[in-house]
Amino acid sequence: MGTWRRSRASDEQLLALAVRDPEAFGVFYDRFERGVLAFFYRATRRADIAADLTAEVFAAALESAPRFSPQLGSARAWLFGIARHELADAWEHGRVEDRARRRLEMEALVLGDAAVGRIAQLGEERALGLLAQLPEDQKCAVAGRVLEDRDYAELAVALQCSESVVRQRVSRGLRRLRARLEQTR
Q: Which residue from 6, 50, 52, 2 is spatially nearest to 28, judged by alpha carbons?
């Protein structure tokens, strides 16, 4: 299949093609790399760990591509299911597993400072983009509490409302952000 046709294929088609066409998996990888990296960076706040987990997820996905079944859900949901599993394993064992990468004889990633910075930026860009979509009162409350680490009393004075109103705005804003993050995974 030509490059142009691969780029127009659905995620599910790419996984089916990946069994016999490695370039199809490359297109699939390109579509989801940023999202998976951002997911892991938000979860760990460590670019190096996010990169290691991302590499392991795609190695596991490549191994599992022949068993992917679109009847069970989208390719995106399947991939992020693998990502959640890898993250849970990393938390449970206190380290990133590399079983799939070793089976595929993939070398470990070595990240330079620029790559580490870019991964961190991916997670921050996505979070700031979602924050900007909140209603103004919630955006100010969440930004003040989470990004600026201000206490509720200080925010209440700055926003000219009670502490309980600030707490409510922060809670509602974080709930909306969480829901939007879940929708975009």
A: 6
